[in-house]
Design goal:
With about 475 residues, the protein is an alpha/beta fold. The chain is about 30% helix and about 25% strand. The chain binds flavin-adenine dinucleotide (FAD) and nicotinamide-adenine-dinucleotide.
Amino acid sequence: MTTYDVAIIGSGPGGYVAAIRCAQLGMKTAIIEKYDTLGGTCLNVGCIPSKALLDSSHHYEDAVKHFADHGIEIPGEVTYNLEKMIARKQGVVDTTTKGIDFLMDKNNIDVFHGMGSFKDATHIQIEKDGNTETIEAKNIIIATGSKPSSLPFINIDKERIITSTEALTLKEVPKHMIVIGGGVIGLELGQVYKRLGAEVTVVEYMDRIIPTMDSAQSKEMLKVFKKQKMKFALSHGVTAVERDGDQVVVKATNKKGEDVSFTGDYVLVSVGRRAYTDGLNLDAVGIPTDDRGRVEVNEHLQTKVSNIYAIGDVIKGAMLAHKAEEEGVFVAEILAGEKPHIDYNLIPGVVYTWPEVASVGKTEEQLKEAGVAYKTGQFPMRALGRSRASGDIDGFVKILAHKETDEVLGVHMVGARVADLIAEAVTAMEFRASAEDIARMSHSHPTYAEAVKEAALAATEDRALHV
Ligand code: FAD
Ligand code: NAD
């Protein structure tokens, strides 16, 4: 039996990045994945395929709605081929997952395909097609990720009542897609199918969409989505989902306590995800999970069993690929005797709709609740030359800074390419910059990034230049 310094269960962005860092630090490393391809949710049925479809549908929408504004004329009707679009997406996924095979190989990481389960604290049994093998590891990292969650009364039939996984491989564009949950998945995939011609109705329990982000972003995005003709039923608690042939009915109760129903041909259930530990046999090692099924860890991401760690979606915190990656590196460096650090306040959140939405640090609601004295600087994208040149005028950059010290406490954006712009805010906040620090830095012209400087100027002394 081979003995490893570290074995990692799960090959998502948490697991495979942990494996690479462990190998870089000289550890003999194994990774175990139950599926045939590496990369986990993110590469196979999450971040990458959803962005591929967002990009394809965005091109189509531009061709139909915006090319003419730029003087580009396409004789005849612009059409799309859904089968080709989905095949392209799969091609992107295949290339990306093969890239992980290459990285494992390059770093001399042993890859085992099969279901991993604990035999004891240093042995993992790997089962595939009735065959079992056991490996020994001094340290083990659980990186088993998450699965879509649902509501207790919903039967996900994977045909008409679907999760994000099925929504990435539909064979037809829905006539009317009812999206339960106006969070990240609902808005990203809802926008994909809206662009391709579906009627889309989002039924959301809270009184605003993307409820964990700053409320200014929720308001702006609601306005933008409504302009794009997406429909919203906010403050609606779903009570039942019924299927009759090709038709689905979603029943809900609104704020006034009235019963309402929505009829469509597909329902996308996007009410969050849950930690996945099925089949791991955690009982064999006595590792507890919390009330939401997440593996319990201490501040070193160590479980109750000292040589077993857990990272990513399977533990507490934001379910984001880059959070999982940071944790993978963190645990590898702890195992190597280093003293790494993660500032969870500075893990950015992004929604890849168009316009994009991006946030880091505290929201205005959180600062109010914590009683922190703050000031706000906000700058509209429409005031930028770059935005007018491209035609992407929706959105803003909002900077929240401490009232006395001017330290940047939160940055919230809506607009073209803000998924990339947020990196400037993260860097500034990592270095504990003040709004004035950002305001005094040169930003190339004309760029969307100028909105960050202008918002910082507005926060510093209410002296934005271009409004
Ligand atoms: P996962 O990626 O879930 O990987 C866990 C792996 O462990 C899986 O491959 C699983 O098969 C394997 N596994 C589980 N149990 C076992 C076992 N017992 N034995 C062997 N293998 C096992 N995040 C972003 O940051 N940006 C985005 O744009 C984004 N888009 C998303 C879009 C969608 C539609 C979805 C669903 C998610 C998206 N996410 C995004 C979230 C992101 O995918 C997750 O946060 C991320 O994948 C978590 O990484 P992980 O390594 O913790 O787990
Ligand atoms: P989410 O938590 O973002 O949104 C779920 C939404 O469903 C919330 O707005 C919630 O209020 C609503 N909801 C809950 N119960 C409801 C009910 N009974 N009726 C109506 N609405 C209800 O979850 P998600 O969109 O499913 O995404 C899951 C996870 O995947 C998230 O944690 C997210 O971080 C991750 N993800 C990230 C990205 C990205 O980074 N761009 C993209 C997709 C997914």
